[in-house]
## 1
Amino acid sequence: MADFGVEAKGVKNINFTNWSQTYSCQPNLYFIPKDVEELREIIFLAKSTSKKVRVVGCGHSPSDICCTDDYMISLRYFNNVLSINCETNTIRVEA
């Protein structure tokens, strides 16, 4: 069952504009989840309410790819290095 308390964490009346100010939108709700569990709750809420989800980074895309009238999610807090493998010279990072 969904925890619709996560809906209260969504911000209304956000006007998103990309860096070049060529595209903008006003998503129904704008979320900035702090962890994977909160992200899961937002996705479940979107599915339960038939909303589409767009993920936005810093808004540097020169297109309207992240614009939406439904839910927008910022992954601002998903910026951690998860692991470093010196043998294979690879790292695993969050979004």
## 2
Amino acid sequence: IPRPPNAFMLFRSHMLKTKAIPPSAERRQQQLSKVAGECWNLLTQEERKPWHDEAARLLKEHQRKYPDYKFTP
């Protein structure tokens, strides 16, 4: 069972889907995450709120689908 995404992971995924970072500029996942992290840190709390709200919604949905789920690395 996959873990539900957090707000940053949703933001990073959105950046990749909308090609905010052009594929020709960078292809390594580590570097893409670094750039997305820098962009995330520049956002205000208000700009981050939709991502946190969506993450909370997905977490509730995940808990409903998998009520006995416990993360074990």
## 3
Amino acid sequence: MSVDPMAYETQFFGFTPQTCMLRVYVAFQDYLFEMMLVVEGVMLKKLDGIPGCKISPSQIRKCTEKFLLFMKEHFDKLFAKMEEVLLQLVLNIPKNVLLPEDRVQEQYPYSKEEFQALQDELQQLQQQCRAEAAAEQALRAELEEQKAVKAELEKILQCFDELENICREHGAGNFKESFALLTQSSKKLQDVLKDVEEKSKKMKQHDQLM
């Protein structure tokens, strides 16, 4: 059997030419064995009808095996020639023939170095795409967070608007001024409370010394 991989032929036929030839060889060999069994059966019937025949079935089987070996040797030689012819003239694609799916390589030829450069560029583009996808996901998460903060701020502004409306209804004037005044008063109260706490601590210390 041929050891040439014949990859281009395999691409075209969908099977390796060597596999095809092997199957043909096995089919011929099986047919040869079956034919020998038929011949042997006919000979046994013919001899069985001859009176006084001293040839036994075992002798016929030995003769059949010898003849089968003789036929197989000649068959192998003939098949080797047939295989060579079929692989060269029937199952072989000439070097100057290009398959339709490979014509694009003829139009756009490239070397191994150019192919490797394209592979490297493709890998870089894939990395950039992954990085951009991650950045887009982070931006989406930030946008969702900003939407949530905006919603909370709108609630606070609405609350201030409602408080200002209440202040106007009760004649409290501008809400912002009232809120600023309230803040100042609260700070004064905190200062007074802090002063009272300090005086209280001093009085407790004085009582302990007495």
## 4
Amino acid sequence: TYAPKLILLDISDINCIRDVAKEILNCYGCVDILINNASMKVKGAVQSISLELDKKIMDANYFGPITLTKAILPNMISRRTGQIVLINSIQGKIGIPFRAAYAASKHAAVGFFDCLRAEMEEFDISVSTVNPTFICSYHRQSAPGNWEASIWK
């Protein structure tokens, strides 16, 4: 058994993910199960959400999980074992009004992990995607017109 080690990671900060994955692998030698369960969302009309905020949501919900997965994957492939899980959203399958950036990022993640599942079969690495319906999560109520402050984490 291993003593737990707390490693902080901002999944939307793509530049630090590889270093964190390296730290984990150096500490424990391998990752048997990787559960990608971080998300960021914002509610608002397409024309009201800035492109910068769209990109931030895409970083957290798409590029973050795939960057972490790609950093851990070579170790799993070399061991020919492992399990990768994406906790996604039903909005990765259907879009609803006022959630365009969120739904787009979740659709992209589903596509990536569906492809990954097929590619990893030969290495006996299991890839699963879970698409729950709506859940309660931490939310900061924003002032009207302050979309940056309305991000859900």
